[in-house]
Design brief:
Helices cover 18% and strands 34% of the residues. With 330 residues, it is α+β, with helices and mostly antiparallel strands.
Length: 330
């Protein structure tokens, strides 16, 4: 196996104090991916050489093992979600072995620099809200767990009618394939695929997005994370409750799914090189003009820098009428 340690894009120095240097680091690698298992050995050696105690996945859940300061996850976003559910409240550094990687932010070629930054305390912890879901059926409430990305009611082969209530106020009834309630971290997943908004880090809200609504009125909502959202199944067609892609329950007519901000926070380790907007453009090939070059250099905030390959427009002093000033004065 060839392990690359190419550098990540450099950014200006961080402003403010660095984070705490972790002394005990958990290590989780995707069991189904040979390359992730192989790289985990290199990561473990790097952590050990720097003086950090490495705790394997097998030992993380042991009550006899002291809590870790951070967990390095080698896998995709699905493994990041599993790790966050299993070890809530612990910061996660994700090295991407998946397809997209919006939670597993670090590409595998950059693992060494990411580990060095983690051990030096040169990182930040981005805290994201989660969703708590409760199923209410015939007056009885049954907690369904919490989600990092989204809580979804999904129809079967026939359209399901979903009534939406926000803080007890009726909003509308949506006939279609279901409804998504997504966190900012989850907004680039099913939410975006269904035409919902992208909520960037720091947005204190949740997106409510109809799935293939059989109506021209299908505008998504963004509500405060303090809001209580209720989805009522208003017909007897098959539907299911799904949290982060895992089916939790089959739903009956008049079942209520009550959603509120979860008690746990999703803690994601981010580095100075992390750039959400660049990742969004590249991972989804989201380039309106593929050859466009930014006129402003984001690192130096200057024009004409080598990285932007642009120069400031030259002033036309010839008086030939071709300059902006000459045309305005004509």
């Amino acid at each position: 196996m060839t392990v690359s340690t190419s550098t990540m894009r450099h950014s200006p120095p961080a402003i403010g104090p660095t984070a705490a240097k972790p002394h005990r680091v958990g290590l989780i690698a995707a069991r189904s991916k040979v390359e992730a298992q192989e790289l985990s050995a290199f990561v473990a050696r790097a952590l050990d050489a720097a003086g950090a105690e490495v705790v394997s996945e097998e030992n993380l859940a042991s009550p006899a093992v002291e809590a870790v300061d951070a967990i390095v996850v080698l896998g995709g976003d699905g493994l990041m979600i599993r790790a966050a559910n299993s070890y809530p409240g612990i910061p996660l550094l994700g090295i991407n072995f998946g397809n997209v990687g919006f939670l597993a932010l670090i590409e595998r070629r950059d693992w060494q620099r990411a580990i060095d930054a983690l051990l030096a305390g040169d990182y930040a912890v981005q805290q994201g809200s989660t969703l708590q879901a409760t199923l209410i059926r015939e007056g009885s409430s049954v907690p369904q767990g919490w989600a990092i990305n989204d809580v979804v009611v999904r129809a079967g082969m026939r359209m399901v009618d979903i009534e939406i209530y926000i803080d007890g106020h009726y909003v509308n009834t949506y006939p279609g394939d279901g409804m998504i309630v997504a966190t900012p971290h989850g907004s680039t997943a099913y939410c975006m695929a269904a035409g919902g908004p992208i909520l960037t880090a720091g947005v204190k809200g949740f997106a409510i997005v109809p799935i293939s609504c059989h109506s021209p009125i299908r505008t998504p909502f963004v509500v405060s994370e303090e809001a209580t959202i209720e989805m009522v199944v208003a017909n007897d067609h098959d539907s299911a409750l799904i949290l982060d892609g895992r089916e939790q329950a089959h739903l009956d007519r008049w079942d209520i799914i009550r959603i509120a901000r979860g008690e746990h926070a999703f803690k994601l380790v981010t580095l100075e090189s992390t750039n959400f907007y660049e990742a969004f453009r590249t991972k989804f090939n989201f380039r309106i003009r593929p050859d466009a070059i930014p006129s402003r250099d984001t690192a130096e905030n200057t024009y004409g820098s080598p990285s932007s390959r642009l120069s400031m427009p030259a002033q036309n002093t010839s008086g030939d009428g071709n300059s902006k000033t000459d045309r305005q004065g004509a």
